[in-house]
Every structure is written in structure tokens, then in C-alpha cells.
Task: inverse folding
């Protein structure tokens, strides 16, 4: 993936627009999910995703090929999402998620309720904490990858995750969830 | 072990990031302290709750929106066009970036070399008239030559202007195909890429080689320029493992026009 991304970046810098479309294909869904969980809104997530790709395209010549494209574009997306959240102080609960058609209405209702409850708790975290939780638990990134995306030492990733999870436990406990 | 230390180690374990000595210590501690096992269970509950947030589908239309926004931006300039600015000192890359480009160039070079079949392990020298669609000739300055691709897959016209070579490819075969252009010594750079038809085309250029990939039938024109020390330019079109055309254009050494 790393070599492929580097080739596509090279091709795009050589004037081939379709190479960037392939990068959009690869990262559109992942970046939308990151933005969605941080902003809590599908519309805001769409704006963040679009702004991320535009910024990446315009700044592509500054991309250092010795780094991974994934960490570079994730960092742009996280910064865009955090800036938007800070500008709008967005703490609204998530838009309704669609139900899984394979689950019974009761199961879907219960699972949907759980997801809304968890996301609402997530939205009460400070944005930096929310971002690190999203990268670890929803994107499944390792400490090293999170450090690369956020541009901070691994040690700081550990301590930020620790603080974020403890804050989340406090929020959950306030809602009567004994964790 | 205080509670903060216990909680930190438990999270590292849950995250799969704990190192061996800490894991041994933690397991021993858990075996001896039931309240620590209870804390472990609570942290797993938090982790499971977060895992309940499944990925969501990107909205329909997002992709089109992004593409439309990108379409309003100018395309990046090919290296050949950007070179004068680089020489002016404004876009000169720092050495780490140059080394990274060099590494990426080597990757492209290997791919192109493989496609051209001129690597150390190549069993057939370019120019051997064993393949249909093969052209091996000396092109005079200002001269052009047409070669028909095998099985009526289309045609390729090569035209030389000094150290510039223009390849006009009319590919009528469906499916993916690659046009590889490489100089045997020295470097090659892309001066132009004009796509006449609408098939998806990707271009990768670095160092000695240029690789143009197309997803289907296409009409495109590629212009390259070779460094003075380049002696020959090799061109090969492949599709599905089949060589549709293979060509070697001889240039004069040292920048002479022959």
C-alpha cells in the first residue's frame, strides 16, 4: 500500500489527475468515518472529507515520500475535523445511524440505542481526547501509527489515551454505566 | 502496584501493545488480586462499548462532490514543465525528499524494466525480430514510423525531433494495457501527455522510465525528452501479459542528431 500510494502521488505530481482519484477511492470511506465520529454530523463529516482531499491535492508537492501517505492525509483530516469542532463547539449527538436489516427490530433498537449512547458520551470528551479514542478504537491504529498521524511521541499517545479513557469512564459512570 | 499503573498496563494489554516483562508482571498481579481482575473486566466493557460503533457508509454523492471540487483545481505540472522553477531555486527539494524521489524512481524503473524485458534476466534482447509488432530501427531526426500492434489491437506512431520522441498510441483493444518508455542510459522526462479519448490513464515517471497505464481503449500522445547521454529509447506496449509492440529507437550519443 505504501509503495502504491507513493507511485500514485508521483503520478499525480507528473500531471495525472486520475492517480489522485485512486487515492480518493482508497481513503474516502476511512476519512469520512474519522470525521463523522469526531464531528458527530454526517454533513460536517462530508465537508471535512472534501476539505481534506482538496488540501491534500493542493499541498501534494510538500508530501515527504519517506513518510506514509496514510498518516499524512489522516493528519490533515483530523486537523480539519478538530478545527471545525472548535469553531462550532459542536457537541450535538450523532445523526441517527441506519439499522442493520439483518437484525430484528428489537435487536436493532437496542444496538442503536447503545451506539447512540456511546457516541453521545464520546461527544462529551474534549476534542483531542475524542480524536485519539477514534484512531485507536474505531480505526484500530497502533500507538506508533497514532503518533505518526498526530505528530506526537508514542509516550504522549499513551498518556493521552489514558486520560481520554478515564474521562470517558467518568462520563459513562455519570450515566449510570458502572465501568 | 498503584491503581494508575495497573490501569495503564491493563489498557496496554487490551490494546495488544504490552511488552513481555510487563505482561508477566501484570499476570502475576492479576492472579493475586481479585479487585485487579474486576478492573480488567470493567476496562474490557469500555473497549467493547466503543467497538459497538461500527463503520458507517459514506453518503452517496460524496465521491462526485469531491471529484467536482478537485476538477476546479489545475492539474499538477509535470516535472519537465516544473524544472525551470526548480532551477530558479523556489522548488528545490531538501535532500531527504530528493532521496525519497530517487527511491520511488527506482521502483518505477524496476517496473518499467520488467515491462520492457531489458533486465539482467531478460532472455530476449530488444530488437530481436521474434515478436509481431516489433520495430527496431534507427529514426532520423524529423522522421516518424508507424507500427501496427499485434492482432489488430491498434497502432503506434513514433516521431523523433532531436532528443525528443513523440509516441502516438491508438489502442483499440479492451482491458488494461501499459505503455512503457525507457532510455537505455541517462534520464528521460515527460514533456507532454495528451489524452484524446476517455479511458482512465495513469502516468508514472521517474528517472529512466515512464509508464502509462490505461484501463481500456484509448488514444493518447506522450512526449518525452532524453538526456544527451541517452543512446536508445525503448518502447513497449503490453496487455494481459502479451507484447503488442516493442520498439527501440536509436539516438546518437552525446546529443548528436543522427
Result:
Amino acid at each position: 500500500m505504501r509503495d502504491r500510494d507513493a507511485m500514485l502521488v508521483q503520478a499525480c505530481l507528473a500531471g495525472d489527475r486520475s492517480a489522485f482519484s485512486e487515492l480518493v477511492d482508497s481513503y474516502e470511506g476511512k476519512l469520512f468515518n474519522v470525521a463523522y465520529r469526531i464531528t458527530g454530523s454526517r454533513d460536517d463529516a462530508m465537508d471535512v472529507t472534501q476539505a481534506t482531499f482538496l488540501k491534500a491535492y493542493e499541498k501534494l508537492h510538500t508530501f515527504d515520500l519517506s513518510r506514509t501517505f496514510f498518516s499524512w492525509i489522516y493528519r490533515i483530516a483530523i486537523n480539519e475535523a478538530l478545527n471545525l469542532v472548535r469553531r462550532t463547539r459542536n457537541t450535538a449527538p450523532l445523526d441517527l445511524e441506519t439499522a442493520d436489516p439483518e437484525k430484528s427490530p428489537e435487536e436493532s433498537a437496542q444496538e442503536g440505542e447503545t451506539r447512540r449512547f456511546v457516541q453521545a458520551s464520546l461527544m462529551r470528551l474534549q476534542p483531542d481526547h475524542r480524536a485519539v479514542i477514534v484512531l485507536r478504537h474505531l480505526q484500530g491504529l497502533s500507538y506508533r501509527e497514532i503518533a505518526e498521524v498526530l505528530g506526537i511521541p508514542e509516550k504522549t499517545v499513551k498518556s493521552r489515551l489514558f486520560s481520554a479513557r478515564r474521562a470517558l469512564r467518568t462520563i459513562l459512570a455519570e450515566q449510570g454505566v458502572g465501568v | 502496584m498503584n491503581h494508575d499503573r495497573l490501569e495503564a498496563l491493563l489498557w496496554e494489554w487490551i490494546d495488544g501493545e504490552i511488552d513481555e516483562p510487563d505482561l508477566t508482571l501484570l499476570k502475576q498481579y492479576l492472579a493475586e488480586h481479585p479487585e485487579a481482575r474486576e478492573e480488567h473486566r470493567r476496562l474490557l466493557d469500555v473497549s467493547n462499548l466503543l467497538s459497538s460503533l461500527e463503520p458507517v457508509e459514506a453518503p452517496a454523492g460524496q465521491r462526485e462532490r469531491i471529484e467536482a471540487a478537485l476538477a476546479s483545481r489545475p492539474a499538477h505540472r509535470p516535472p519537465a514543465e516544473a524544472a525551470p522553477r526548480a532551477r530558479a531555486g523556489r522548488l528545490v527539494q531538501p535532500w531527504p525528499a530528493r532521496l525519497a524521489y530517487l527511491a520511488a524512481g527506482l521502483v518505477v524503473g524496476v517496473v518499467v524494466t520488467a515491462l520492457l524485458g531489458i533486465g539482467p534476466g531478460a532472455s530476449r534482447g530488444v530488437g530481436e525480430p521474434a515478436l509481431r509488432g516489433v520495430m527496431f530501427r534507427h529514426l532520423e531526426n524529423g522522421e516518424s514510423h508507424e507500427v501496427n500492434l499485434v492482432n489488430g489491437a491498434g497502432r503506434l506512431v513514433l516521431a523523433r525531433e532531436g532528443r525528443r520522441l513523440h509516441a502516438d498510441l491508438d489502442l483499440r483493444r479492451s482491458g488494461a494495457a501499459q505503455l512503457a518508455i525507457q532510455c537505455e542510459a541517462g534520464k528521460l522526462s515527460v514533456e507532454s501527455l495528451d489524452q484524446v479519448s476517455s479511458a482512465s490513464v495513469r502516468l508514472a515517471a521517474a528517472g529512466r522510465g515512464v509508464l502509462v497505464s490505461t484501463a481500456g481503449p484509448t488514444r493518447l500522445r506522450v512526449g518525452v525528452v532524453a538526456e544527451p547521454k541517452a543512446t536508445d529509447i525503448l518502447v513497449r506496449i503490453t496487455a494481459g501479459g502479451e507484447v503488442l509492440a516493442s520498439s527501440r529507437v536509436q539516438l546518437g550519443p552525446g546529443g548528436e542528431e543522427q
